[in-house]
Amino acid sequence: MRKFGLALCAAAFLPSNLVIAQNISPREVDALPATEPNVISNYGTDPLQFGELRLPAGEGPFPVVVIIHGGCWTDGYATKQNTAPIASDLRSAGFATWNIEYRQVGSAGAGWPGTFLDWGNATDHLRTLAKDNGLDLSNVTVVGHSAGAHAALFVASRSRLPVESEVRGEDPLPVKAVVAIDGPGDLGPFVGLDATICGKPVIEPLIGGSIDTYPSRFSEASPAARLPLGVRQGLISSSLVLSPEVAETYRATATEAGDKVDVRVFGDSGHFEPIAPGSSEWRVVKELILTFGGIEKQR
User: Could you read off the pLDDT of 34-70 as tens digits, one per residue?
Assistant: First the structure.
């Protein structure tokens, strides 16, 4: 796959305050080929509470991948278009893919608890979609990139939250596996680094305040605090967002707690290569998703 230019060139495609290691820019990923969805469905009443369902050929039941885009948890950085190419590629591999949009900080109702509820409610909406679309709800993998990686781990951790939690949801849909692509599993240590990566603080606006003010929110929002999650997990490190050291620390903690975690490190890659179909990084990520979903690797 050709390179899309150096980071300095790619920065022209980004919000001026976003600072991140990359070769491929998010706008160039947006422009990669994507198929039209079979179904567009709302999981709430807000215009941003919807998703795109793509169905493979056949009658099902199909294994499902929920896909959550990134964008610094903040409106204006990325949309579902950023993950439409991988949603389309995984559809071709035999998955039904549910590529969701959600409220990000800056949108009405976003932050705590709205953004977290959107991730959970969108996943739970698969119960409605399954009625007419042949979905196998016993085989659901959640995949997220960047801020969406945190979201994917959060979705997998919801059932371990206290029943009274504002962000748990009444009946979290069980998931089989999660693949977190270059995003954090623990928000507390990410405060400070968020401003370096995103160009401004984003975690405290997401949570509604500091960790000193809302320690319980930070705990509930951080999947690392819920270990073991009881599902298969994959972590992808490809830039400074999720360093290899942080990924290995997470794996060690999760393994000690009883979880199985696979880590893949792309030391010389950028942040967006792992969600660019055709790249060598995406091929590795895709094979991990295929393995988790029980689909034979494609050569």
Answer: 999 999 999 999 999 999 999 999 989 999 999 999 9
Give per-residue pLDDT as tens, 221-252: 999 999 999 999 999 999 879 999 999 999 99
Name the token pair of 26. 């998010």
Q: Cβ distance 180 to 150 under 8 Å?
A: yes
How would you class 146 by CB atoms within 10 Å of its CB: exposed for 0-12, middle for 13-18, buried for 19 or more? buried
| 39, 96 contact by CB (below 8 A) | no
Q: What are the strands of the beta sheet with 39-42, ordered from one edge?
A: 39-42, 50-54, 96-100, 62-68, 135-145, 177-181, 232-237, 261-265
Tell me how far apart the terminal alpha carbons of the chain are, to the nearest angstrom: 16
Inter-residue contact 46 to 108 (CB < 8 Å): yes
pTM of the model: 0.92
- Count Cβ neighbours within 10 Å for each residue of 35-64 and write b for 16 or more, e otherwise: eebeeebebbebebbbbbbbbbeeeeebbb
Q: Give the other-Cβ count within 10 Å of 257's Cβ.
A: 13
CA 76, CA 71: separation in Å to the nearest integer?
8
Q: Which two tokens stand for residue 277?
A: 């179909």
